[in-house]
Amino acid sequence: MISAVVVNHNGGVGLRRCLDSLGPPRAGLEVLLVDNASSDGSPALVREVFPWVRVLAQTANLGFGAANNLAAASAAGESLLLLNADAWLEAGALGRLADRLGSDERLALVAPRLVYPDGRRQFSWSPERGVLGEALQQLRNPHEARAWVHGRAARLASRIAGPPWYTAACVLLRATAFREVGGFDERFFMYFEDVDLCVRLRAAGWRLAEEPAAVARHAGGFARHPQVDELYRPSQLRYYGLHRPRWEQRLIARRLRRRFGDRAVDAWLAPGAAP
């Protein structure tokens, strides 16, 4: 069985398109929706239009990782499809992801080929996060629509900076692997939770892969949240503190202090710092 998990916060029309892409209710697929305190009537819409979807309505916004963990704790599937509310699967994508995951017992995560709604290529991967990886990411981002940056450039970046990580906008995960590493680290409210998960899966001996024959469309892409720095920077600093060498931690902190000031960085570095 596959358990599809959708985390929603005021998803609106996009949420309906997302759930439609999972198809009608059928054996072998359960759909769980964690609603992070939406104010747009999303839970009521889902209960009316998609009565087979199990809605886990929250009174506060738990964040992306914590909401996925909540659903995963009660999911019945041997694999977990994590699908953003602003993403949707093309026909046959779920079956192709499942086939790829089933082809290798040490494969923990399979990512589809991501495209924008108009069909332009979108990054499903990024270089290993770190000073060098972030520099490489800035170099490759302007070329997102070009095929070579998803092939040759991805392989080159892996050799230079380390293995890539895959965005959790759409991934199929082996449930045993996800639970073995403790799921998402809930200290990441938003951003870096998927980077951290990929690092911990690999450290535990699991493999990650992309299945380009499976296609998902994602409206969000790298769209910037209006409070991106307040959300992104605490997670960035936490990730560096957990996974990167001391010199990189000091370097990234200095850069942020020059840009945002000591007070902001001290707040972001405080234990439990989160929106």
Please outline what is shown here.
The chain has 275 residues and is an alpha/beta fold. The chain contains eleven helices and ten strands.
Describe this structure in words.
The protein is an alpha/beta fold and 275 residues long. The chain has two domains: 175 residues, Spore Coat Polysaccharide Biosynthesis Protein SpsA, Chain A (Alpha-Beta Complex); 42 residues. 42% of the residues lie in helices and 21% in strands. It is built from eleven helices and ten strands. An eight-stranded mixed beta sheet has the order 3-2-1-4-9-6-10-5, sandwiched between helices. The chain has a two-stranded antiparallel ribbon with strand order 7-8. Helix 2 links the parallel strand 2 and strand 3. Helix 9 crosses helix 11 and helix 10 crosses helix 11. The model has no long low-confidence stretch (mean pLDDT 91).
Shape: globular
| Structural class designation | alpha/beta
User: Mean pLDDT, as a whole number?
Assistant: 91
| CATH topology annotation of the largest domain | Spore Coat Polysaccharide Biosynthesis Protein SpsA, Chain A
- Placed side by side, the strands forming the largest sheet appear as 3-2-1-4-9-6-10-5
Number of domains: 2
Low-confidence segments: none
H and E string: EHEHEHEEHEEHHEEHHEHHH
Count of strand segments: 10
CATH evolutionary superfamily of the largest domain: Spore Coat Polysaccharide Biosynthesis Protein SpsA, Chain A
- Sheet with the most strands? 8 strands, mixed
Number of helices: 11
What CATH architecture of the largest domain do you see?
A: Alpha-Beta Complex
What is the rounded distance between the termini?
35 Å
Which band does the percent of strand residues land in?
Answer: 15-25%
Helix content estimate: 40-55%
Give the radius of gyration.
18 Å
The first-level CATH class name of the largest domain: Alpha Beta
